[in-house]
Amino acid sequence: MSIIKTVDVKKWFGDFQALKGISMEVAEGEVLVICGPSGSGKSTFIRCINRLEQHQEGEIVVDGIELTNDLKNIEAIRSEVGMVFQSFNLFPHLTVMQNITLAPIWVRKKSRSESEEKAMELLERVGIPEQAQKFPGQLSGGQQQRVAIARALAMEPKIMLFDEPTSALDPEMIKEVLDAMKELAESGMTMIVVTHEMGFAKEVADRVMLFDEGLMVEENTPNEFFDNPKNDRTKLFLSQIL
Amino acid sequence: MIRDSKFFIENPYGRWVRDNLFSSSSSAFLTFFAGFMVIYSYRGIVGFILNPERMWTSVTYNMKLYMILAYPDEAMIRVWLSVGLALILGGLSIGFYNSGKTISLGGIFQKLFTISAVIAILIALAPTNTNVIQNDGSIEVVEIIPQDVRMLILVPSLVLTLAFFFLRNVKIKNLFNTAKVNLTYFGLIIASLYFIKIPTISLDSSGERIIPDPFLPIASTTYIPWTILYVGMLLFFFIGSLLKNRDIKIMARLIPISWFLCPLFIFSWIFKKPLVELNTVFSADIPSILVFGVIGFLIIRFSDNESVGVYRTPINIGFLVLSIVVFLLPLVFIFKATMVLLLLLLIVSPAIATTKEGKRQLFIVWVVSLFVLTFLIRGASSDTMLVTPTGSIFGGFSLTWLLAIFGTYASFPLGLALALGRTSTLPVIRIICTGIIEIVRSVPYITWLFFASVMLTVFLPAGVEFNLIIRVLILTAFFSGAYFAEYIRGGLQSIPKGQYEAANAIGMNPFQRIFLVIVPQALRTIIPTLVGSVITSFKDSSLVAIIGLFDILRIGTSVIPAQSQPVVFIGRNLEQLVFLSFFFWVFTFVFSRRSMKFEKRLGLGER
């Protein structure tokens, strides 16, 4: 049973065609890693899944709801899909705790005490319960990204999207974020991760995809992808990155 | 070279002087030049102030006129209550919010050292003589600070400076609460009202001026009220600290709300003494509270009902249309205002009234705000019972205050609405808001004031008439609102796109996104600008003097210099202008200092 299904998704920015027809499916509980050179459309694609970007052709169905211009559908899908950004995008005027509880209280209509309890649980899960009352500006990059993961999880999403979550981090902080993501994958979350962390892809992914110039050029299991790639473009990409 | 001598290298003070004042030949020149200019203008100002031609009693004698113009004597207690309310609230806030900041004894001595050193320098540099222009045009040199007076101040202040200089290094472990120290300073100022005496114009029983003026305490008629208010402030300071220690959380919300409501309450009830008839209260106010209370209860009760939720958008639009209709109908103002409040409730209740606890709290807030709103409007819309010769109870500083506070109160929400409207994606709203902003901003304030005083009555529907102050308030609200709107728009544009995306990604609707994520950040970034524009509108309020309102500036420039009864002050403008500049400076300075602290506190979460 696929939880995300896209059929021939196309997207233009003005004259530039960013996505040239992407068709794929993601099963429930699957971890999918998308990699590819910059400008290949991988970020644009996962941003289309929760309508941060609007696709012009093709169809995207998330958890049985089709993405159309209907605001109700969009909000319904967004509350099912958590997203973690490259630049964290925490709310700087709120404490860590308020960042995490904002959506449960206002969007999910939960009580404050219940949301705070849940937030503490999540902070423990990502390993920073002691930072709850600080402001994002007082945390390191790795800690901020883990707060961002906790904030997305607080909505109890069925799917998590990661848009290059470690690209803006110092090398020694990358591990702590990847560990949190690994733990999440092991708990059975459906995840789509855009990343250049090949170690993470090898270890955690169920499937790896390579995007190039708006097309999906290879889709494979991690072992096959790294050891026995079918496509020449994949070989070139791997030779440059590894 | 001198600057390489031992003193300027090794001594810390010498080092400071060398690095900061004489670091290069050009900076040495600037130091000398600026020093000369400062001393020259200082001596000029002192010479002007102490010139025997000045008649400062024209300021002190008219202090009451400046503050409240012709407010009736028998109702003076209301003025003191108004001031007292603000002071008491101040005491309460200091007690509640002062987060145990402390200062050491050495720190206190350091401050006293600075103060006494400044006094010593100022008195040493003060001129001995000044020029007085005689009637025949010749200039006579007059001694203004006799040598013995100078010594009388200089010697003790030098001794104190030396004493504090050595005392400031005492290592005493005792720390003093900063708030208490500041309150003590304030107490000393109050005490000085008793001890410092100045020549005061006094009339004998037959109304004749006693010559020469007897020496009386500075606030010879008001030191007792000031003392009472100070005691009240102290009392509430201790109540505030007590509440803080008991950790009573609700105060943290109650105090800001009280600060917000305090001027409204003062101007609609305490200062005004409204004439409230019981039958209007029973025929309009109480039914309104009951009816709207029940409607509010129903809205809260069914806010998360599934079957009602389907019709939410038509219900909201229906209420919007209804409230516009109600606003245009010739109904009691209370209904109109409550309708707006109801619309607000309708918008926020689906977001807040989601749990039983949330519903209960929202209902309490609803009922309390209904009462407060009705109460304030009843006071504001009733006639006053006070009779004044000028026909208005507001005049002098009370008018300036009224214009400044209500200008800000009305213009801020208006500005926010205009800014959001201008950035809206709906073309009709955007065009209307842009139009209002551009029209209002492209016409000078003075022109708008004349518009308010002369033309607004022509534009209003027949039978609708406001008094001049209200007309000025409406136009001020639009004028500063348009400026606020542009500042806020600047703030909105400074919010990175990622914030919008993050808010979208967690499923917020546009309303939540704007008011929970974007606007709070936008306002934070523009606090300095907003404070600047509040100060500007405070000062600009003196322009109403031109259209015939008696604000503090008009009193100083045209009322007092024309006085001949019971004392002749004719032509005494210079003193008034010096006093008014000083007066405005004190207020704006204090205000901008406070806002800097506020900014720091809010800036906690800055990136």
TrEMBL record, chain A:
It is an enzyme of class 7 (translocase). It comes from the Bacteria. One of its GO terms (molecular function) is ATPase-coupled polar amino acid-transporter activity. Keywords: ATP-binding, Nucleotide-binding, Transport. The keyword Glycoprotein does not apply. It catalyses: a polar amino acid(out) + ATP + H2O = a polar amino acid(in) + ADP + phosphate + H(+). Pfam families: ABC_tran (PF00005). Residues 4-238 form the ABC transporter domain. Its EC number is 7.4.2.1. PROSITE patterns: ABC_TRANSPORTER_1, ABC_TRANSPORTER_2. Belongs to the ABC transporter superfamily. This is ABC-type polar-amino-acid transporter.
